Here is the input.
Amino acid sequence: DAGVTQSPTHLIKTRGQQVTLRCSPKSGHDTVSWYQQALGQGPQFIFQYYEEEERQRGNFPDRFSGHQFPNYSSELNVNALLLGDSALYLCASVRGEETQYFGPGTRLLVL
Amino acid sequence: GNSVTQMEGPVTLSEEAFLTINCTYTATGYPSLFWYVQYPGEGLQLLLKATKADDKGSNKGFEATYRKETTSFHLEKGSVQVSDSAVYFCALKPRGTSGTYKYIFGTGTRLKVLA
Here is the structure.
């Protein structure tokens, strides 16, 4: 049983560019959340998707957007990248009231 | 609001030493509490959880008890190994937020175990 998978593992972009990160949830899971983990910090909630809609959002600007597909996979898009967007981006999935499971993350470096 | 406070690291111990990592929380109602572990270069792995007061979560020799009176969820292990070296995160899921998964994390505590 595959767990949560994310791609790519690493990414380097320059300021002002746009980036798309991808996540496949654990088998049987239908809800996906995205978190940003800056270096030396705990993960910060970005948003959550269920039934292809954004259900809850953290304190992140509109430059951060997402999408969920009918197969429950998800994308995180970040526009107009800033140096401060450099971080590990974690995807997590869950079904119902079970425990949330995290993927290995995508490490984004903005130069 | 909801928040999690963890003891600052790094924590450096010799192999077979006793480990305690303190975690306290602020929340409305009674949240679910979690400990996650992050090994170098990896994502988060669930270590243990507790969903109500006085519950004890345990896994791989680690344990933590949900203490409502002191709003704490301290992580303990009787004898650490070098392989336990990692960053440990305490987290909460607010109660009454069915259908949402906005976990609140602490800043993490780095543990280094020396042989």
In short: Chain B has a mean pLDDT of 92.
